[in-house]
Amino acid sequence: MTDSKKPWGLLALAAAALLAAAPAGAEEAYPAKPITMIVPFPPGGAADIAARPVAEAMGRYLKQPIVIENKAGAGGGIGMAQVAKARPDGYTVLMALSSIVVLPEADAILQRRPMFELSQLRPVARFTADPVVLVVQADSPWKDFKQFTAALRQKPGRYTFGSSGNYGTMHVPVEQMKAATQTSMLHIPYTGAGPAVVALLGGQVDAVATGPSTVAAHIQAGKLRPLAQWGEGRIPTLPDVPSLKELGVPVSYSQWTGVFVPASTPDAVVARLREAAKFAAGDARAAQSLQAAGTYFQYLDAPEFEPFVTRDAQSMAKVVQRIGRVE
Predict the structure, then answer these.
(1) 83 three-class SS
(2) Please, what is the Cα angle at 182 between 153 and 224, to 5 degrees?
(3) Minimum mean pLDDT range among 24-33, 164-173, 208-217
């Protein structure tokens, strides 16, 4: 080796030593590859409807695609458990429904090993929060909620309602209503809101209670009739539909969607996801997509979302205990 080449050789050795000493996390900035967003229900439900525009907008902000993977089963529990046990690196995230706070309590009621614990997941952001809407076929004999409950009392257990699974966001509110009105219906669980609504349209069940975004198009098309909703007041997208409280039934229920990550995900990664979530919640394209589906952003950042989840879990635990054991 000539003298003119020696300094370059020394520089190469020094650079190699620096690279070897650098921490593993310093090798690449997050995200350096596509992210998977698990939706724990089939396409067509509230979580899926929220996930698609949110994932697209977050991906634009992060400059990496966010790929939707529908992982249905056990009222959402299978997909939620998958994320709870995923590698906490920010590349597997969950778009959950509010049933996330119910399923661990349901597992306890059923005395079975929990699919996941809420403590295994970390809230990142809430996106929507809609009261569920009770709908029936447009050609059903029930023109309003009073006629509907009168029929339930006349023939207890004769009529059916579909849901996304035991203790899910379509099951719990109907159980609330049944208890408050002292009526009876037969529960038919499906794998998600999409299949349950298809069953209603096909006449396999008599009613469903689900988020407005799941049924708005069918209501507008004249295929389904809304009878009541579980809000504290009127729903902006369905202003003519009375709340149960207005009708003298003292119950309310919100079907919210939010992004979660495994609990031990690094703070720096969560911070980037929070930035992307905030961008998505303010994105006109995403807002228009949700509005067209019959819902809208009701965004909460992690510092507000985390206590919201805790309060909802405490409230829903009491509801699940009142419902009791459902196999």
Answers:
(1) helix
(2) 65
(3) 24-33
Is 51 in a helix, a strand, or coil? helix
Q: Which two tokens stand for residue 185?
A: 């219906």
Measure the CA–CA gap between 98 and 169, rounded to whole angstroms: 7
Kindly indicate the confidence band of residue 167, based on its pLDDT and cuts at 50, 70 and 90.
confident
Residue with structure tokens 């690196």? 89
For residues 172-199, one letter each, b for 16 or more C-beta atoms within 10 angstroms of the residue's C-beta and e for the rest, the string is bbbbbbbeebebebebbbbbbbbbbbbb
Determine phi and psi for 230, rounding to 5 degrees: -95, 20
Determine the residue type at 135: V
Within 13 Å, how many C-alpha atoms sit on residue 2's CB side? 2
Give how far Cα 2 sits from Cα of 5, 6, 12, Å.
Answer: 6, 7, 16
- Residue 261 CB: number of other CB atoms within 10 A? 24
Q: Across the chain, where does the E strand assignment appear? A: 35-39, 66-70, 92-97, 121-131, 133-137, 160-163, 186-189, 207-210, 224-229, 254-262, 300-301
Does 203 have pLDDT greater than 50? Answer: yes
Cβ-based neighbours of 48, under 8 Å, separated by 6 or more:
39, 41, 42, 68, 70, 95, 192, 194
Three-class SS of 98-141:
HHHHCHHHHHHHCCCCCCCCHHHEEEEEEEEEEECEEEEECCCC
300: which strand partners? 126
The predicted pLDDT at position 327 comes to: 58
Torsions phi, psi of 15, nearest 5? -65, -40
- What distance in Å separates the CA atoms of residue 274 and residue 30, rounded to the nearest whole number? 13
| pTM of the complete model beyond 0.85 | no
Beta bridge partners of 137: 224
Specify the DSSP class assigned to residue 29. Answer: P
